[in-house]
Amino acid sequence: MRLLKRCRFLLLLKLTIALGSLWILSLLTCSEPGLNPSSVLRYSWLEYTDSDDSPEKVCNCSAILQGEREALEQAKLLTINKDFHKMVHIPDEHYMNATEDCSAFKLRRKYLTSPLSQEEEDFPLAYSMVVHHKVQNFERLLRAIYAPQNIYCVHVDKKADSSVLFAIWAITDCFPNVFLVSQPVDVVYAAWSRVQADLNCMADLYNSSTQWKYIINLCGQDFPLKTNLEIVRTLRSLRGGNSLESEEMPAGKVWRVRNAHKVIDGRIQDTGKANEPPPFNITIMSGNAYFVVSRGFIRSVLEDRRVLALMEWAKDTYSPDEMFWATIQRMPGVPGSTRSHRKYDMSDANAIARLVKWQWHEGSQDSPDAVYPECQGSHVRAICVNAAGDLKWMLKQHHLFANKFDIDTEPVAVYCLEKYLRKRALSGLQ
Q1: Contacts of 36 (CB under 8 A, 6+ apart)
Q2: pTM of this prediction exceeds 0.85
């Protein structure tokens, strides 16, 4: 049955994607062009080493993580080298071919197929992953956070390229605990559909047989700053609490919820009408799209009549993902919530869910107004695309994940972070 399904996808892929010469794939991928049994035996499948023949191995990751100038300058030079980027880039089609033999794929990519500790096995996690492009980013992220006791729901935007959908389907099909969401949606920026994508994954995860303890939501350009064991221990320390940005709504953002909005021609637009007051006199809070919340929190999201009413009301607001979760976190009776009083406000810097360097908050270390140091990479929509030079500072922070990473522009940052995390996971330096 699995072979039949895969054949059908391959047929669709061939009809929708113009495949290049197959021999080029072996030149462009970071893995060997074929599974060599002798090389598999020669190197541990768990450890990332320079013998894996990744193009990034020319970098000295140890020196980069220490912030040594020469190593960072070498990494910067590589980011402007077109030939280097061609060597690092893996086309979407590669994953369809590479996953024909799932055992070989997992072995070559060094996925962890057994829990590394009893502590981790006894504390399974759930992940909601919302993706719309950059399959290579997604696969590297999945590999970094994968553990067999956890469970992963992947939401691929309905308008994503067919090559993206088929490649991600092929990857997820190799794992019994990774699956595509049952009800994908067409995600529109700043509209309710962004929340709905996570909600659909939450429902699938909540109804699964895995009795996970906490859920973390991610996008395809996130990457962990901690190992699975470090994440588990951090979440245990919450003692049932949640961690996410939740603050008083700034005056400059009130229009987002007071004005009624609708999606028109694929874009969120102000209708010129006033929105109804929130149901149950709920205090609307400000936050962001990312969270670390307990299973009980999700039960309230799916079943609490106040939350269900808030959902309907929020569908007419602008960027509801930046207030919906933050608001639920301050509602009385929701497991792990806190009071709505401003003394319980939590900023994104204090929450552990996600580290994001916003361009307007960057500055030199001597600046009293700077929240974090200047971005060493580029900016996309005022968010830092982290480079190798950002890693030393980032790894000192308490956040579990960071955004944004992009292998197309800053591959060395991802490579060195991968090596660092795998070494910690295997050596017990936690």
Answers
A1: none
A2: yes
